[in-house]
Design a protein that fits this description.
The protein is α/β, with parallel strands linked by helices. It has 15 helices and 10 strands. Strand 2, helix 6 and strand 3 form a beta-alpha-beta unit.
Length: about 375
């Protein structure tokens, strides 16, 4: 007959609690323990793991801890950047509201003077945040004037990180699923001290591969739903002044491009971003990551879909784009990469999907075709290159 050692009183308390606690609560707690690098494995002479014995000895404390987990709101601050699309904003906000974040920051640009409908649409968008029905520290940053996408987004993210060490950042057309928030929180905890990890992305493009684990590392900081740390954003410079330094420019192009066409493409992009000819903020972040050898975390499945393709968009105009309205999937992370290094073969696949022009046109007109492809897939409004 098998004999079991009787649990101490604290352990019996924990066992009684375990029987009445949902698996989701235990799963969340165990994931948190693992990501905090607490050792919960290893056999002892009694057959118990060291982590199990520790839980037994501190059963009452852990009981209180699990109760807190079961009832607490989402503890990662969320920055929500909106403008003049109330219907899209409401759709994304409904998902955010399900998480009940303890802190919500909302940044909204002002109406454009040459767009008569903006004033009403911006007012409708802002009114969505008047009635928040959970306990939440709400911070509002509503601009009276229009700053434009480039300046507004950069300023909003800087404002968010001035108040918080970590953030999840969503725009009004980036619709996440529930797994996105858990994934971001888990990665923000696990890699909080890794200077070479600068962004957690919720994106996985169609046909992208290279996932031997539940996520991988990439050179591409994909920003349709993402998270990061203040330490990473402090390296951001919208004006990209470091691009003027030859050694930095050569470091970026030599280490993050793999062929002459890719090198020409990114040199062209960074030249025009430095000159202020592209109305976007994110190329400057790509440059900041590459200049500091920063990597991005990409999930094995897509967690965020862009629902904003169409005439009202700032950049993403083509509703038939393969990047529009991608399916999302739930993800529970249990299989972590053993090494922090980018998967070059998988990054090449992203380059083929998003950035690379057709082979027949690359040699003759690499920059013009690349620009055209970017405009079709990502809807980026690049000013005419003279």
């Amino acid at each position: 007959m098998t004999r079991y050692r009787r649990l101490p009183p604290a352990g019996r308390t924990l066992r009684r609690f375990a029987r009445s606690t949902s698996w989701n609560v235990w799963k969340e707690a165990l994931l948190l323990l693992r990501d905090l690098d607490i050792n919960v494995v290893g056999k002892t002479r009694f057959g118990y793991s060291r982590g199990a014995q520790a839980l037994q000895r501190a059963g009452v404390i852990w009981w209180l801890f699990f109760q807190q987990i079961d009832s607490m709101a989402f503890d990662v601050p969320i920055l929500f950047c909106v403008f003049n699309r109330p219907e899209l904003t409401r759709s994304v906000f409904e998902v955010i509201a399900r998480q009940k974040p303890k802190r919500l920051l909302v940044a909204c640009d002002g109406p454009r003077p040459d767009h008569p409908d903006d004033e009403s649409l911006v007012r409708q968008t802002r009114a969505i945040f008047d009635d928040i029905d959970w306990e939440c520290d709400v911070q509002l940053n509503f601009s009276d004037t229009n700053n434009g996408c480039r300046k507004q987004m950069a300023n909003a993210i800087t404002w968010g990180f001035e108040q918080n060490e970590r953030l999840i950042i969503l725009e009004d057309d980036c619709l996440p699923n529930d797994s996105f928030f858990t994934f971001c929180r888990q990665m923000l905890i696990k890699y909080r001290q890794r200077q070479d990890v600068m962004i957690v992305s919720g994106n996985n493009y169609p046909q992208a591969d290279g996932f031997d684990h539940d996520y991988r590392f990439s050179k591409y900081p994909l920003i349709w739903g993402w998270a990061s740390w203040r330490r990473a954003w402090q390296r951001y410079d919208l004006e990209m002044e470091l691009w003027d330094l030859r050694e930095v420019r050569e470091h970026v192009l030599n280490n993050f491009t793999e062929n002459p066409d890719e090198r020409a493409f990114w040199q062209n992009i960074f030249d025009h971003q430095r000159a202020g000819k592209i109305d976007t903020w994110d190329y400057s972040f790509t440059f900041a990551c590459w200049a500091h050898n920063g990597l991005s975390i990409l999930p094995r499945v897509n967690l965020v879909t862009n629902i904003g393709f169409g005439d009202q968009a700032t950049h993403t105009f083509d509703p038939q784009s393969p990047m529009a309205n991608q399916k999302t999937f739930e993800l529970t992370v249990s299989d972590h990469p053993t090494h922090i290094q980018r998967v070059r073969s998988a990054d090449r696949k992203i380059r083929e999907i998003v950035f690379e022009p057709p082979a027949s046109a690359r040699v003759e007109k690499p920059v013009r075709v690349s620009k055209s492809l970017m405009k079709r897939l990502l809807g980026l409004s690049l000013q005419k290159i003279s």
